[in-house]
Amino acid sequence: MEQNDLQRALMAVLFAAGEPVDAKRLSQTLEHDEAEIHEACKTLMDELSFNRSGIRIVRLENAYQMCSSPEMAEYVTKTLETRKPPKLSPSQLETLTVIAYYQPATKALVEQIRGVDSAYCVSALVTKKLIRECGRLNVPGRPIVYETTPDFLRVFGLESLAELPEIEKVDLHVDPSQVEPLEQKQEESTQPDASAPVQQEIPL
User: Fold this and answer.
1) For residue 1, what are the CA distances in angstroms to 6, 27, 30, 97?
2) Axis crossing angle, helix 119-127 with helix 107-114, rounded to the nearest 10
3) What are 137-177's pLDDT values in tens digits?
4) Is 90-184 the same fold as 3-80?
5) In CATH, what number does 90-184 get?
6) pLDDT tens digits, residue range 8-61?
């Protein structure tokens, strides 16, 4: 497959997908190294931007998605009669900030940092697809662990979490080694594992 063929294939796949597609999957299906996938996508991104196309390709960490250009948002909204997404309340934005900077994060960690109950805010952010469940913490009670989504990156105009502004963080965290990913989730026993280690700074 020549480079031009690769670019055309990428355009077709990203258009048909309608959601972020990981570069690793593109590499496997299009039979090109990931480096070539990234290079081809970068070329397409530059060409679409230079030509002021109504279509853009955006990078979301290690994935790519095709979308309309920001300049065309008004026309897309009018034509499709789509509504603007609801704005985040101050409490939801604060909760999202905590999860973005401290992920993977449990609801208990969010509440410890914020100092207030955050169940509603977490649920609202999941509904808005800005955060998602990414596993369970391997401690008694097995609380759900959350992380931000590709939609979070797109909404805030970020390519990766590394672009988040630096802040002074408190010394609280969830140990990633204690997170059991959803895809590796096993059958839970009827009794909690009393021998599992507990993060002292996160009351569960």
Assistant:
1) 6, 12, 9, 43
2) 120
3) 888 888 999 999 988 988 888 888 888 888 877 777 777 77
4) yes
5) 1.10.10.10
6) 999 999 998 888 899 999 999 999 999 999 999 999 999 998 898 999 999 988
pLDDT of residue 193: 40
* Torsion angles phi and psi, residue 111, rounded to 5: -70, -35
The answer to whether the predicted template modeling score (pTM) of the entire model surpasses 0.85 is: no
State the burial class of residue 127 (Cβ atoms within 10 Å of its Cβ: 0-12, 13-18, 19+).
exposed
Q: Could you state, in order of their start, the residue ranges of all structural domains in the chain?
A: 3-80, 90-184
Q: Pick from 125, 121, 201: which is nearest to 156 by CA?
A: 125
In the predicted model, what is the mean pLDDT of residues 70-92? 78
User: What are the phi and psi torsion angles at 121 (to 5°)?
Assistant: -65, -45
Check pLDDT > 70 for residue 84. Answer: no
Q: Decide yes or no: CATH 1.10.10.10 for domain 3-80.
A: yes
Q: Which structure tokens are listed for 26?
A: 């593109």
Q: What is the 8-class DSSP label of residue 163?
A: G
